[in-house]
Amino acid sequence: MQKINREDIHIISRHSNCTSTEIQEVLKNNIYSDVNSWKKFLQLFFISLGICFTTAGILFFFAYNWEKLHKFYKIGIIEGLIIITTLIVLFSKIKELFKNIILTGASILVGVLFAVFGQIYQTGANAYDFFLGWTMAITLWVVISNFAPLWLFFLTLINTTIILYSQQVASDWQDLFPLLLLFIVNTLFLISSIYISKIRQTTHQTWFTNLIALAACFIATIGISAGIFEDTDASFISLLLIVLLSYSLGIWYGHQSKNIFYFAIIAFSGIIMITSLLIQVSSEEAMIFLISLFIITSVTGTIKLLVDLQKKWNNA
């Protein structure tokens, strides 16, 4: 059952004989946040802020006192913190949400431990090795916790590993192949997140999937726009075909879920791609003028279409 929103209440108020007092009561019960909601928000906000400040404090502690610490203390302190936080997560009786937040902080400390170890013993490993090891080390935590911010951090590590590997090792890759790989990884991650939520009949966090969709759309836009100005190769053709398929699925899913966000990012991504194509065709003054008209017209038309579509869904 879909939850009533503010627009629904306004529509009802315009087409019913409800008094202003009754409307305010409905808004208070269904829309406005009560004291308990604010308490929960502030509780989560401050504990998250505390974990962030604690982790940042540990980082600055090592940065400031680096040369004065013996290597035993450098590694021992971080390992001790990881063990303590892990024990808290495993054996304490605090809420699961707080455990997940603490586990996210512990996942960051794992990266700090690898960085300290690499600097002490000068392993000579590439940067991608560091992020790959970090990613593999926290994989089990990420899967077990199933915590959206930790999944997002995990995906960031994967993307960073791919980028660094393409720069430091895979020198024979085609220019657009890293972007093709990044787009596939992020898109599959997005599809899996939505699909698993449907199988488990749980509500996925909209901000989480929207952020991944935005990242995938950004990668696709950069890749195709850059490929337009380069010689056509297999990576560009593959990226173009996969993006067209993914964007079609995105529009279909956006319509099914009545999520205007997917329509918006795909539309503006398409405008940027078409603009790049027009610039590639010609950069003369007449073309620049036509491109300006195209951008103004397409952006205005897209915004109007999105507003009308949102109104249609709200009134349905």
* Overall pLDDT: 82
- Beta-strand content bin: under 5%
Outline, from the CA principal axes? globular
Distance between the termini: 15 Å
Radius of gyration: 25 Å
- Specify the number of helices: 12
* Low-confidence parts: none
Question: Which bin fits the share of residues in helices?
Answer: over 70%
| Structural class by secondary-structure content | mainly alpha
Order of helices and strands: HHHHHHHHHHHH
**Sheet of most strands:** none
Give the total of beta strands: 0
Structure description:
- The structure is a single chain.
- The protein has 316 residues and is mostly helical.
- Among the domains are: 1-31, no CATH class; 173-316, no CATH class.
- It contains twelve helices and no strands.
- The protein has helices at 6-14, 20-30, 35-64, 71-91, 96-121, 127-145, 148-168, 177-199, 206-228, 234-257, 260-281, 285-315.
- The longest helix has 31 residues, at 285-315.
- The two termini are 15 Å apart.
- The model has no long low-confidence stretch (mean pLDDT 82).
